[in-house]
Amino acid sequence: MLNLSQNNYSVHEPSSPDSESVTDSKFKSRWSEVDCPSSGKRWMHCSTLFDKYMVTYAGGNGREALDDLVALNIETNTWKTVEIFGQKPAGRYGQSGGRWKDDTLIVFGGQTSGSNITKETLIMKFDSAEMDSVSCVVNQAAAYPDIGRTRHSASIHGNTLYIFGGKDEKKITVKTLLRLNLTLSSNP
Question: Which CATH number applies to 40-184: 2.120.10.80, 1.10.3980.10, 3.40.718.10, 2.160.10.10?
Answer without folding.
Answer: 2.120.10.80
